[in-house]
Design a protein that fits this description.
This is Glycosyltransferase 2-like domain-containing protein. Pfam families: Glycos_transf_2 (PF00535). Keywords: Glycosyltransferase, Transferase. Belongs to the glycosyltransferase 2 family. The protein is an alpha/beta fold and 290 residues long. The chain has a single domain, classed as Spore Coat Polysaccharide Biosynthesis Protein SpsA, Chain A, CATH 3.90.550. It has ten helices and eleven strands. The two termini are 20 Å apart. Strand 7 and strand 8 form a beta hairpin. The strands form two sheets. Strands 1, 2, 3, 4, 5, 6, 9, 10 and 11 form a nine-stranded mixed beta sheet that branches. The protein has a two-stranded antiparallel sheet with strand order 7-8.
């Protein structure tokens, strides 16, 4: 594509100490013409005053109540006029030239997103065993088709983001919303690429680590179920999932709490439709680019 208009969006809540560490690198390595926006999720740590005093060119979107990660990201995208949006967690530091290799993939007009190479992680090696499963891929030598783009470090084509409706806020406050939009993109006929030369360092110091971890665990597991119920339409895979739920609940009766939490949210689910089947997506992802 012709030189695209770029914008970095960084959602943050009480993350001043993280912005002090990582924002300078995001500004320095994202290009002088790239807009930088921090979506402040009702912080009380002086974030806005600090940014105004030290980074006056950084745009701040202030939320008057804590909306969580998923809604904060949608807020930022909704205010953006960029062609490509770089979504970074406030605990992510991009490396020099991290955009050069990634942006080339957007020459293909079906590319929805490019997920960046977190130095301590990898691309998601996806499989199906009663539910969507993934581990870290071991071969980091070449770009791969990825099932999704990380919500903490990725570049998204804004026009397709808008077409897909952004993150589904049923996943609020967070977790699985990036996997969900990735699956929806694939089923709509788009592609997502993991680029090993687009290096960032993710320190995993975000505000989620400060929450009650029992609550975080419940949200993660609830959202995992919502993802599978919302997105998987293949009858045989759905049957596999039902058997998984039955087995897992019999072995772990406490899992019923998760099931009930997901059932409570289920009336809000909007089922995913597409031109690509679940099995076709599973066959397309994980593969190296030709």
């Amino acid at each position: 594509m012709n030189k695209p208009k770029l914008e970095v969006i960084i959602p943050s809540i009480n993350g001043l100490f993280l912005l002090k560490k990582h924002l300078p690198e995001a500004i320095a390595f994202s290009g002088k013409d790239t807009a930088i926006t921090v979506v402040d999720d009702d912080s009380v740590d002086g974030t806005l005053d600090y940014l105004a005093a030290n980074f006056p060119k950084v745009k701040c979107l202030r939320q008057d109540q804590n909306l969580g990660f998923t809604k904060s990201v949608n807020h930022g995208f909704g205010e953006s006029s960029a062609d490509l949006v770089i979504l970074l967690n406030n605990d992510v530091s991009p490396k020099k030239n991290y955009l050069a290799s990634a942006l080339k993939h957007f020459d293909h007009d079906r590319t929805f997103a490019v997920t960046l190479d977190e130095t301590t992680s990898s691309w998601p090696l996806v499989s199906w065993d009663g539910k969507l499963q993934y581990i870290r891929g071991e071969d980091k030598t070449a770009p791969r088709f990825s099932a999704w783009a990380s919500g903490g470090s990725a570049i998204f084509r804004k026009s397709i983001w808008d077409e897909l409706g952004g993150f589904d806020e049923i996943y609020s406050p967070g977790y699985w919303e990036d996997i969900d939009i990735g699956w929806r993109a694939w089923k709509a006929g788009y592609q997502i690429i993991w680029e090993p030369k687009a290096l960032v360092e993710h320190r995993h110091e975000s505000s989620f680590s400060k929450l009650d971890q029992n609550f975080v665990s419940l949200v993660k597991q609830r959202n995992e179920l919502i993802f599978n119920w919302k997105n998987i339409s293949d009858p045989d895979l759905r049957h596999d999932h039902f058997l998984y739920l039955l087995r897992h609940t019999l072995i772990h009766p406490g899992y019923l709490k998760v099931v009930f939490a997901a059932l409570k949210a289920y009336p809000q689910v909007k089922k995913t439709k597409g031109i690509i089947t679940d099995r076709e997506v599973l066959a397309l992802v994980n593969q190296p680019l030709a």
